């Protein structure tokens, strides 16, 4: 029993690590733009499909595939930023969010056009046997995922608190009106935040696809839903909250799935979110979503 | 008129209901990612009542509308004071919960010696009321059309009335509306009930048109499509959402040129139109101008 | 000699014109102040000068260059900095980080560092609180921080929007002492104030603004002070 609990906790944390990265990406964009990018998941999917295409046609190395995924996600993110968010800066938030959803439709159709099969195999991070630690099974690739997610978070923290760009991002999150007055080139910071968020998402996407060994067009919707859910659970607009929300979501899912099965697993997560929102729990509703 | 054209037109009508449902909420200032849930409630409820219990379609449709309104109220009440993205996420959570509940729904009954009814992820087949009663596709299109026309007429009347102005006032500036004595909460609940009923009506008609429904039909894609139809068509008039549906299903789906590229074209169109018209093609300004020119 | 020259600026919020053709001049090295009742458009003018709002029409020339409608960061780079109404410090960042943010567009790191030392010398209270979060500072300290932050960009023209707002009289005196000090050190200042009395004590020239237009221009002696105060708070009696 305890072994099961620990195993589920471990599995939950590693899934949670990818959710945390997704939530961080969403939160960066939301914190700075006060809007949710509904094409975030699909742009990650675009990157992952670019990598799949490279794998199918050229058999690229793992590292190259990771780089292609991240670059593809960043490229897609830039396209979304220019078309959906830059034109509506200071304008209608609903228009921006619905426009970003419209591009989601584009990415999904593009993926199915270029890579028509529903499922493609993706080279796994690690093909060997899992490690055994007593009664626990440790998959090497899930450990790698945890490590990579940790490294990405550390890199993000360093960027935000030790670089000039990070200062500008924090200024925009805390006091957008004064940030422009301090000489910060706001549109340029927005573009770079998008790139950063997309890169984080790309890392998460690559890790997920490489640990599952396969990719489907559902990746886009999956990443968006998990990222949004984790972001809201941890408290909208808070970066540490995004990490906590992601890990919490992973843990909740792993344990619920064990005791109640996969459908109830998702049901519980959504129910939790709904209840927390309805109760207007303070940490969830502090930031104004314009 | 050939069957294909009838099918396309019927679909335009069916999806107009759920687009109008999203539109009503948008006017009242709320962005809902969840109208597909109430479309589904209508579909399942209507289908169960006619296929398993032999209810006549009109009665089942009414019951389905009532259930849809109730379901939407169930979601609206706890989320009344939520705004913006928070409200949208709450509707998304509720809609996904509904979809999972549809996946878990097994309501089987012996009808004419055979087991029928929703069977979880296997779906719900045999919703054949209109075929059993000899209603041709063209007649059904007529029924859908008449119902849609009635709804539009009702909405247009409301729009010109004080209720319509109150509604838009609440949507634009709830604090201002409250300060002049409007009971914002009651207005929002009323709109929610109407939106739920509308979506459910579309659902019931959809279920009987397709004769087969499954939980996957009511996923987030449908919900955000409805939102997109409402917003791109324009928030100035109830014809707006119709325009949105016409653009996607009417123009893009039915023309062969866009075969396989429909979503790419429609998606791009939505994003570009919204840059120049954030409140849609038929936004409040254009509608105002049109009214002045033709009055 | 016209350091800042504003000509016929019209700025609108949607259809409502908040500035209906504002013209004024700020001389180099002087303290010029802008008085007027609430809603006259003073803050709108400041935001237009800083580039946050785009004017529909008109011209703003600073040191010979047209800056109307340019992006805010470009205007800061040209030497115009605004201390905004309500100070708007970055609450979760430390005092030191707030100052660093003020120098964002500057590339000369060594001089930025020495400038920061200079700010701490001029504002000893900020030095005490250098590692503290700006949101925890008192109103007066936040105002000083906002001024110091703006000064970090080495502006040739400092715009100040209601620096005395919400502050106790003693603190207000200290703020105006700093304004006078900055003036002595050569900074040109354009100051919006509700506190007409204090403003007239330091200014060399003042303007009155009402309902989106400049209605009076002169130096502090040219109108009886109580008439100025009356028009600053209530607007002109005649219509």
Q: What would your notes on this structure say?
A:
The complex is a heterotrimer of chains A (290), B (295) and C (239). Chain A has a domain at 16-122 and 136-228. Chain A is built from eleven helices and four strands, in the order H-H-H-H-E-E-E-H-H-H-H-E-H-H-H. Chain A has helices at 2-33, 40-58, 62-85, 93-114, 140-162, 164-174, 176-181, 186-212, 218-234, 239-260, 262-278, and strands at residues 120-121, 131-133, 136-138, 214-215. In chain A, strands 1-4 form a two-stranded antiparallel sheet. In chain A, helix 2 packs across helix 9 (218-234). Chain A is globular, with a radius of gyration of 19 Å. The termini of chain A are far apart. Chain B is built from 13 helices and four strands. Chain B has helices at residues 3-27, 35-53, 57-76, 84-104, 129-132, 137-160, 162-172, 174-179, 184-210, 220-233, 239-253, 262-276, 284-293; strands at residues 109-111, 114-116, 124-125, 212-213. Chain C is built from nine helices and ten strands. Chain C has a six-stranded mixed beta sheet with strand order 6-7-8-3-9-10, sandwiched between helices. In chain C, helix 3 packs parallel to helix 6. The two termini of chain C are 35 Å apart. Chains A and B meet through helix 4, helix 9 and helix 11 of A and helix 4, helix 10 and helix 12 of B.
Q: What is the residue-mean pLDDT of chain B, rounded to a whole number?
A: 91
Number-wise, the strands of chain C total 10
Tell me the structural class of chain B: mainly alpha
- Mean pLDDT reading of chain C: 89
| Rg calc of chain B | 19 Å
State the helicity of chain B in percent bands: over 70%
Q: Which two chains share the most extensive interface?
A: A-B, 48 and 45 residues
Structure summary:
Helices cover 76% and strands 3% of the residues of chain A.
Summary keywords:
heterotrimer; B: mainly alpha; two-stranded antiparallel sheet; C: 239 residues; alpha/beta; Rossmann fold; 4-stranded antiparallel sheet
Please render the helix and strand layout as text.
The complex is a heterotrimer of chains A (290), B (295) and C (239).
Chain A: H1 2-33, H2 40-58, H3 62-85, H4 93-114, E1 120-121, E2 131-133, E3 136-138, H5 140-162, H6 164-174, H7 176-181, H8 186-212, E4 214-215, H9 218-234, H10 239-260, H11 262-278
Antiparallel strand pairs in A: 1-4, 2-3
Chain B: H1 3-27, H2 35-53, H3 57-76, H4 84-104, E1 109-111, E2 114-116, E3 124-125, H5 129-132, H6 137-160, H7 162-172, H8 174-179, H9 184-210, E4 212-213, H10 220-233, H11 239-253, H12 262-276, H13 284-293
Antiparallel strand pairs in B: 1-2, 3-4
Helix pairs in contact in B: 1-6, 1-9, 1-10, 1-11, 2-3, 2-4, 2-9, 3-9, 6-7, 10-11
Chain C: E1 2-13, E2 16-27, E3 31-35, H1 42-50, E4 57-62, E5 65-66, H2 72-77, E6 80-83, H3 95-102, H4 109-122, H5 124-128, H6 139-151, E7 157-161, H7 169-184, E8 188-192, H8 196-202, E9 205-210, E10 213-218, H9 225-234
Parallel strand pairs in C: 3-8, 3-9, 6-7, 7-8
Antiparallel strand pairs in C: 1-2, 1-4, 4-5, 9-10
Helix pairs in contact in C: 3-6
